[in-house]
Predict the 3D structure of the following.
Amino acid sequence: MIRTNNRSADALRPLSIETNVNKYAEGSCLICCGDTKVLCTASAEEKVPGWLKNTGSGWVTAEYGMLPRATGQRVDREAKKGQSGRTQEIQRLIGRALRAGVDLKALDGFCIKVDCDVIQADGGTRTASITGGFIALYLACHHLIQTGKLTKSPITAFVAAVSVGIIHGIPMLDLDYKEDSTAGVDANFVMTDAGKLVEIQGTAEHQAFSRDELNTLLDLAQKGIGELIAKQKNILEG
Amino acid sequence: MIRTNNRSADALRPLSIETNVNKYAEGSCLICCGDTKVLCTASAEEKVPGWLKNTGSGWVTAEYGMLPRATGQRVDREAKKGQSGRTQEIQRLIGRALRAGVDLKALDGFCIKVDCDVIQADGGTRTASITGGFIALYLACHHLIQTGKLTKSPITAFVAAVSVGIIHGIPMLDLDYKEDSTAGVDANFVMTDAGKLVEIQGTAEHQAFSRDELNTLLDLAQKGIGELIAKQKNILEG
Amino acid sequence: MIRTNNRSADALRPLSIETNVNKYAEGSCLICCGDTKVLCTASAEEKVPGWLKNTGSGWVTAEYGMLPRATGQRVDREAKKGQSGRTQEIQRLIGRALRAGVDLKALDGFCIKVDCDVIQADGGTRTASITGGFIALYLACHHLIQTGKLTKSPITAFVAAVSVGIIHGIPMLDLDYKEDSTAGVDANFVMTDAGKLVEIQGTAEHQAFSRDELNTLLDLAQKGIGELIAKQKNILEG
Amino acid sequence: MIRTNNRSADALRPLSIETNVNKYAEGSCLICCGDTKVLCTASAEEKVPGWLKNTGSGWVTAEYGMLPRATGQRVDREAKKGQSGRTQEIQRLIGRALRAGVDLKALDGFCIKVDCDVIQADGGTRTASITGGFIALYLACHHLIQTGKLTKSPITAFVAAVSVGIIHGIPMLDLDYKEDSTAGVDANFVMTDAGKLVEIQGTAEHQAFSRDELNTLLDLAQKGIGELIAKQKNILEG
Amino acid sequence: MIRTNNRSADALRPLSIETNVNKYAEGSCLICCGDTKVLCTASAEEKVPGWLKNTGSGWVTAEYGMLPRATGQRVDREAKKGQSGRTQEIQRLIGRALRAGVDLKALDGFCIKVDCDVIQADGGTRTASITGGFIALYLACHHLIQTGKLTKSPITAFVAAVSVGIIHGIPMLDLDYKEDSTAGVDANFVMTDAGKLVEIQGTAEHQAFSRDELNTLLDLAQKGIGELIAKQKNILEG
Amino acid sequence: MIRTNNRSADALRPLSIETNVNKYAEGSCLICCGDTKVLCTASAEEKVPGWLKNTGSGWVTAEYGMLPRATGQRVDREAKKGQSGRTQEIQRLIGRALRAGVDLKALDGFCIKVDCDVIQADGGTRTASITGGFIALYLACHHLIQTGKLTKSPITAFVAAVSVGIIHGIPMLDLDYKEDSTAGVDANFVMTDAGKLVEIQGTAEHQAFSRDELNTLLDLAQKGIGELIAKQKNILEG
């Protein structure tokens, strides 16, 4: 089994991140992981959800969407049929993952909404959304500092995510759509720049997996996330 | 009153159109009219809506959407709240406009869905969607010919659209959002490359207008649409 | 081509307007344009929408509906399936058109909702709704004056609307359903008693149209709207 | 306690029924019970619901709606907010009541939908809908015979309905809205021309009631329904 | 025709009521009428609906649901498709019936929501919900007294309900599902411990019924409800 | 920190499983894990979803719901407001987990729907649903064999699930609601009787966690799931 462009089993797809792609958003980027392209915008509002009022805490939340022809076959527009269970599950995951890198107390009075819209999908859209969404979030926090609304950044850790899987018995990093479709085990990991786990999700699509296999997948993910966070730091902190 | 970049009253905003921006869609483009950016994809399916079966006719339809932070203030995602009346009105307009350039009989057996998703909005999103959507549609028809599914193009006319308005008494072409907000009269025209009208829509926001004023607006629109169609032809027929 | 009852190409259908047909509404009428019958009620509430609070402005809005068997074939009830895009587009048009005849500042503190419910449909339901809705609105304003809630009328202009079209090459006024179905061009115009345009909407159903044809249609519409407004004035100011 | 127009406790409100008020419907009438006005149309379709296919049985069903300003205070349009529980309960009642007068086997292959739309409401809208809906249904059946689609009428009994109540201890027939609002007991009865009960619904709004009181209410209802059916027969069978 | 377990025509099904089956609810019970099992919980909140604020009155309301496999054939989950008209009609009935046993003034400041969820259905689910819902409601009121939130019970009467019907000409008490499906007349009665009627609902499914038959049904219902209320009193007041 | 009933950190809560609690379902059980009580029914239908037709495969799916007062504070009924993202996420998880124990080819022609309805919630409702849902599924498969519809069981593995978490630094098994609310890390594991992983889900609620901590949690889960599967086997295979 040969991966596209002779990619090795433990290699990420080509990665590009363009920041400030939206003239209105407080933070934004376009992240491309291979042919997966996600537009991430972070919108900061000086207002917290009702249930957080007077708690001394701000909030970070995320929404996820996919354009109808982001995929090989056009899918119906969610604005017409409502958000699917899959969409809701993904956006809840993105929100939880991003909050793991933020001190919400330090964001008191503000809500940052991170929109991750998939322009083109080729596997790994939820992990690309987390990695790119973190950049938009970071930039929005920076914007709040520069405009004098916050005095210090609420960011406490860098957060990125990657998918891994076992295909025909071989553990592989950063699956594209074709690989994902044939994977027997499919997992997503979210980690911080300190190498800690934020979120783990793994599913045996066709075959249950052993704890040894899980450890191999974790090794792969740790390597990939390390590279993703290096790129985030390079872009944001130069 | 001075327009951004000293644009004259009868000048279009800077226009750029990039084609084939989506690896799956049969036709696609990213159209930028000033800061308004719309991603247009045309998806061809070998299947017509139920009510057209056995009528010897194909179909062209359009859908329109706006990313939540396409605008200065973030708006709620339509996937969560359903499509607004404004969205439905706009996508019905785009579909009607595009069909005016197509011989539906020559498209028998096929339905082409044109998705116009606004990545960034600065006025004129519906007219940019028509101008860009036509390009995606044209390319999808070309794809059907090249893959042997159609023998000749169902395209019968080039179609483009532009907005015009009267601001502080001065008729102006191709309004941006700030201009549109202060316009007393606001109109959108869709025309063919033969200079014929396909759709006219004009609204007196603050003041009713005379037939003379309508004629001046039509003159402006005709000039702008001529330039837009020249660009379409340059890109598509080079 | 002969019109029903030998109507000439530039003649309106028989018109009747009965006022005060609802014992609760502040203003109401039943307007019959040929076999098209629309019940219009204007409900005045001493309360403005949230976004208008403390702006010194009142509001006028409209809603449109069609009884299930208003048409030749029964259509599903919108209360069961939700308002269609067409319905929303029409009621937005009616609202905009009516506001063109009102000084909203002079209506400060009040919201008038005009309901236009089609009892029987035979073409031109949206234009009949505007012409009849204006009467209901006028009567509701009068009621607010008589009950001492307003000191002067916020009405600044009479507003009426009519449809025109080109059928087999012949421009015609006030199309019925059968005519509308075969029209190559179909347009609706809204004008004031000063002969100014409030709203123009024209669609090439089967053939694009020239500016000369547009001018002929405007002439016809101007004649018809003149007659409609004369009738409105006769009824309201007798 | 004096009733409007000195009506006696056992008297119906003034009743008028105008038939064939809709040019498209197979059967229709406008029924006015005092100030309650309901437009009833019966639409016959040569098609039965899926669950009745090949059972040798036709179907009769009903839908109910109220125009937004049918009432003293305008209520939100159900097309915008969906049908309320009350609306669904009422239309299920109307459908059951009308089916009691029909041999569904004799209607094999047809579905008749009876729409009851309240133009103006002053109490007793559901019972007026049944009494008027039966007339529309009867006329539609007659239409099916006259057009050769049925050979004999599926109508097996006349059906009408009336409300009764106990107000300040006094049983009264055919309550108007003001009376209904103060009634301690409120009941609706549906009966056939043979004096049999089709549907009984009674609610103790403020006070439970005895079986003696129930019998008095039944006496009143029987008298009123007798008069309603006499009117139906006079109109339909002259 | 022989009833299950040789039950006589005027006998209730085996009845069991287990109280306090939910550790959170202020009042709860599981009521089993034959194979019909309904879980009833009463939730007391120190808050009234908006329209009752400052009226000196509390509120009691009910909701009804059925688990998907409560019935012989699994039915779609209402959480996925929305509440049916039948469900809404039933829960409105339960709420009205329960309020007949409560002095709402004495419940000022509180809203008690009674949830009746059918675990298994075999006919008579709405009447079992009323009989069991009353017990949950009574216990919740008792809880409010014991926790010092109320000083005296707002309960003014015991309320219970039962179904009756005519099957092959024989009036029968407390129908199970199979009996209910073949009944020509089907009625539900709600009564108080004083023998007064709270709610009557009767429907001629296949045949209209006479007042004599109605009286026989009332006799049966009165007997059954007497037994149900005796059981309620035994459980609640020992 | 002392657990309820002095439970040790690696102990399950008291577990009880009652089978065949529903007279209609092909398989059913009531599972109680401490105060968490879930009613599981498996409904077998001889019909597969459209997208599986003629693929030689059957299907297993799950739905999840919670009664309004299953929790300390009553929550709004999902039948009124629609299924939340959380509910959809949980029922997708349950379905995936159960399918891991089934050879879908051996279930060709059948769809088994497993409904998991939470009667009372005290933490771990999704894992109890999986453990109990498997029992209902197993029983339904057994029923298909006994009724001659299948010749051999499609069950290929026993599947059970448990939650684990880190509370104040201490890894604990099978969290109740209070524990879950204070957990810094919260994870759910699904495993087979062969000790293989089917699904892993872990979230750092307040603090990211190390791979060592993950391993400790996996050890705990493996112990708990072993005990749960022993109980399943005891009940089903005695």
Notes: The beta strands of chain A are 15-19, 27-33, 36-45, 59-66, 111-120, 159-167, 170-173, 185-192, 197-204. The helical segments of chain A are 78-81, 85-99, 125-146, 177-182, 211-237. The CA atoms of residues 131 and 160 of chain A lie 4 Å apart. DSSP finds five helices and nine strands in chain A.
